[in-house]
Amino acid sequence: MAWLTLSIDTDAAHAESLSDALLERGALSVDLLDADADTPDEQAIFGEPGEPPPGVWLHNRVSALFDSDVDVTEVLRAAALSVGLMQMPEHRIETLADNDWVRLTQSQFEPIPISGRLWIVPTWHTPSDPTAINIVLDPGLAFGTGSHPTTRLCLRWLDNNLKGGESVLDYGCGSGILAIAALKLGAARAVGVDVDPQAVTASRDNAFVNEVTDVQFYLPNKAPKDSYDLVVANILTNPLRMLAPLLANATRQGGQIVLSGILESQAQDVMNIYEQWFDLNSPIFEEGWSCLSGQKR
Q: How many CB atoms are closer than 10 A to CB 20?
């Protein structure tokens, strides 16, 4: 069986109502993404305790899935009219062939070498080097599988700089990969924090699979107020701007901070903020992304 996929770029005023209208007219699923993702115009959407719930992006991409016998053009026309769009929005319709989706998905994820001794290995693979430090991790609902440049940049920093015995805060922990890696590389204890309850659950599950102890994962309002030898935050530029005082306060004097999720063009802006508290090293770049690090004065 094949399906039809519909992609539409729309503004913030119509993104959610258009998504609902497509579902009401037979869409099997609808996904809403930032149309400017991976560009300098990428917009961070996140929620913190005590703040209003996050909204939608300025420019949105609505993706909908339909059965193959549906007249998708007519569905879109009716949905657009129902939300006040007098003209058909620009769109693209493609055929999605039937596949063994489990095998197809698994085939896209091979073991990832981070360094000579550190690998990320999905559960369905045998480690390429059984003697290496292998982090067992499958793709899931939370960010952080080792495939994104920002995750690799942070992992390499940990591999090159951890001495052993450190306390670590992984803020925006996603899958928990950085906290888990830190412990496997010799850190004494780790705390992970994320605003997404699914990320907290995924992190706990991944820590169990990797048999690491001395790690706890929390939502922000439940996290302990403590200071750490190392604070690592692989999120996005806008959250890093807003969280700068919090992350600086969580880093002990003389401790280290590692920041990523920052586009290369945004690195200096973030450095200007964190230089209030830290002596920063030269940024490291990979595929248009940045990793910043420094020591707290």
A: 15
Q: For the segment 250-276, what is each residue's pLDDT rounded down to a tens digit?
A: 999 999 999 999 999 999 999 999 999
Q: Determine phi and psi for 24, rounding to 5 degrees.
A: -65, -25
Residue 109, SS3 per DSSP: coil
Domains located in the chain, CATH noted:
3-98 (3.30.70.120), 141-296 (3.40.50.150)
Distance CA 149, CA 164 (A): 25
Q: Name the token pair of 5.
A: 């996929």
pLDDT tens, residue by residue, 86-105: 889 999 999 987 765 555 45
> What b/e string do you get for 36-50 counting C-beta neighbours within 10 Å, with b at 16 or more?
beeeeebbbeeeeee
- Inter-CA distances, 135 with 127, 151, 294, Å: 9, 13, 26
The mean pLDDT of 39-63, rounded to a whole number, is 67
Give me the numbers of helices (H) and strands (E) for the chain, helices first please.
8, 15
Lookup: tokens for 78: 């009716």
How far apart (Å, rounded) are the C-alpha atoms in residues 187 and 161? 11
- The DSSP element (H or E) to which 239 belongs, if any, is helix 237-250
- pTM more than 0.85: no
